[in-house]
Amino acid sequence: MSDFRPLSPDYSVAPQIAIEDVAEAKAAGFAMIVNNRPDGEEPSAPQGGDIASAAAAEGLAYAAIPVGHAGFSHPQLDALDTLLADATGPVLAYCRSGTRSTHLWALARARAGDDVDALCDAAAKAGYDLSALRPMMDALAGDR
């Protein structure tokens, strides 16, 4: 059973998806799947290539922006910005728990000028706490 959690009308996150979740993502109207989990992080989980193949079979776009233990970088935010700008429909991003996918989105959106309080509220409604990330989001919002 899928656990897709909307953060905005065009972006949702999920904990690690299974191969069968890709068909559910297609049925739910997603146009792209973004993998924020590095390959090999959990060997028993479907790896990027497995999800990419399932996405291709369903006619969904697939991209990987791995976020490992080193944390987040501007190139990762840039990559997400580009994917979202080029997306032809709603995007589903996943990682182990959905937290990294949520954090990456929140940082990118704060940098783009979205209201930080609204981003925190959207994440909270989806079950994610951005309080530890708030100083970084505020800094990115102030850098615009």
Automatic annotation (TrEMBL):
This is Uncharacterized protein (TIGR01244 family). Pfam families: BLH_phosphatase (PF04273). InterPro entries: BLH_phosphatase-like, Prot-tyrosine_phosphatase-like, Rhodanese-like_dom. It comes from Sphingopyxis panaciterrulae. Residues 78-132 form the Rhodanese domain. GO terms for molecular function: hydrolase activity.
